């Protein structure tokens, strides 16, 4: 009886891409193949060497400092937009989060830092700015590769313009002995794409196509890139959008962050014309993302694992 080898997500090293390298084109093409395949097979992959260990450590420290602030300070971060303010909910008692919209715009990080630390916190300010810029670059590279893989380059510019971003930082406290260990319930991300980072505590789990759940353990400065439902609607179902969840163990708090790209409501989310044919019949009717979110949060959509299908799925 052989012992089972634990399944790992594909690891893709983006540090090989250097703009002034003459081999850049072939490197780009080879990474592009890996990215598209990983999205089809797993819906996610480990992106290594996008940020340095030092930068990642500064960001990890920054998160701890932020969540250590008194509750009344954290509550000052309010917003009408989902997940941009300070979030706590009895449905996810271990979880708390805060968000910064479009964090690669330096003024937005300045505003957030001023609100949390009226006497300043230069380390937080600078590390979040540099980090967000790097994540924004990775977001663009990955999407460009997927668009190219399907000959959809002509849509790339307009889709990027119609995108807004959220950097969500999260803390999960350790459960009490009589509490559930679920940090975040099973879900798919309904936005375009998410870049996640978790600290050394771990706890993120992803469901594979064969329904098996695997724990995600990646290098300390690796990121996990996850395909979201909006991306999959654009491509009319060509990606796997993975269910994932956070399960806590031990008695130490866990910190993570997510860089979410979201389609703005200036245009409808819809499958590209070229993605629909006899072999690939239309799966989703065009919809407005903000309207979908209203359904998701207010009409109980969040309780359903298949909220988007229920909202705008086409019966084939
Ligand atoms: O905390 C994590 O690692 C995962 C967070 C997540 O999946 C989400 O916010 O959608
Ligand atoms: Fe998620």
Summarize the structure.
The protein is built from 9 helices and 12 strands. With 316 residues, the chain is of the alpha+beta class. It comes from Tagetes erecta (African marigold).
Task: Give a written overview of the molecule.
The protein is 34% helix and 22% strand. It has one domain (11-279): Sandwich (Jelly Rolls), CATH 2.60.120.330. Helix 5 packs antiparallel against helix 6 (153-161). It is built from nine helices and twelve strands. It has helices at residues 24-41, 53-67, 71-74, 106-116, 122-149, 153-161, 229-234, 289-298, 307-312; strands spanning 11-13, 44-48, 87-89, 92-101, 163-172, 182-187, 193-198, 204-207, 213-215, 223-227, 244-247, 254-263. Strand 1, helix 1 and strand 2 (44-48) form a beta-alpha-beta unit. It is an alpha+beta fold. Bound molecules: 2-oxoglutaric acid (AKG) and fe (ii) ion (FE2). 2-oxoglutaric acid (AKG) binds at residues 170, 184, 189, 196, 198, 204, 244, 246, 256, 258. It comes from Tagetes erecta. Belongs to the iron/ascorbate-dependent oxidoreductase family. Pfam families: 2OG-FeII_Oxy, DIOX_N. 2-oxoglutarate-dependent dioxygenase essential for auxin catabolism and maintenance of auxin homeostasis in reproductive organs. Catalyzes the irreversible oxidation of indole-3-acetic acid (IAA) to the biologically inactive 2-oxoindole-3-acetic acid (OxIAA).
């Amino acid at each position: 009886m052989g012992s089972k080898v634990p399944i790992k997500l594909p690891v893709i090293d983006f540090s090989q891409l250097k703009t002034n390298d003459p081999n850049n084109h072939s490197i780009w093409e080879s990474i592009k193949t890996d990215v598209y395949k990983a999205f089809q097979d797993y819906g996610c992959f480990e992106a290594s060497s996008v940020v340095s260990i030092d930068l990642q450590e500064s960001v990890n420290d920054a998160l701890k400092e932020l969540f250590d602030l008194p509750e009344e300070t954290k509550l000052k971060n309010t917003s009408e937009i989902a997940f941009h303010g300070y979030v706590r909910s009895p449905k996810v008692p271990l979880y708390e989060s805060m968000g910064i919209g479009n964090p690669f715009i330096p003024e937005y990080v300045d505003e957030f830092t001023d609100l949390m630390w009226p006497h300043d916190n230069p380390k937080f300010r600078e590390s979040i700015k540099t980090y967000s810029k790097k994540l924004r670059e990775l977001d663009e590279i990955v999407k460009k590769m997927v668009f190219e893989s399907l000959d959809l380059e002509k849509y790339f510019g307009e889709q990027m313009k119609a995108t807004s971003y959220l950097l969500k930082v999260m803390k999960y406290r350790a459960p009490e002995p009589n509490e559930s260990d679920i940090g975040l319930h099973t879900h798919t991300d309904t936005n375009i794409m998410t870049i996640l980072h978790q600290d050394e505590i771990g706890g993120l789990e992803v469901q594979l196509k064969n329904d098996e759940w695997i724990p995600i353990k990646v290098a300390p400065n690796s990121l996990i890139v996850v395909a979201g439902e909006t991306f999959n609607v654009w491509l009319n179902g060509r990606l796997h959008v993975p269910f994932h969840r956070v399960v806590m163990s031990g008695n130490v708090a866990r910190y993570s962050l997510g860089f979410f790209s979201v389609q703005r409501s200036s245009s409808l989310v819809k499958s590209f014309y070229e993605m629909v044919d006899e072999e690939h019949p239309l799966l989703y009717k065009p919809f407005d993302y903000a309207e979908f979110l209203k359904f998701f949060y207010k009409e109980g959509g969040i309780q359903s694992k298949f909220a988007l299908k229920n909202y705008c799925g086409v019966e084939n």
